[in-house]
Amino acid sequence: MNNPDMTRKQELANKTVQQGCFAVTYDDLGYAVKAVLTSHSPGYVAEDGTVVPGEPIKRK
Hints:
single chain, 60 residues, mainly beta, two-stranded antiparallel ribbon, 5 strands, 0% helix, globular
């Protein structure tokens, strides 16, 4: 499983974005502060161009 890109991205400040299997949260300066594994598979792009997400991890 690949690791998320935790480099600074000022354009993503105060946002949470999906990077493959991870949801990465950025602070107000654009630094990645948290990466949470959200699925065991990043998903795939179907032939018609739609994105099919991976199966989410079930948490208790």
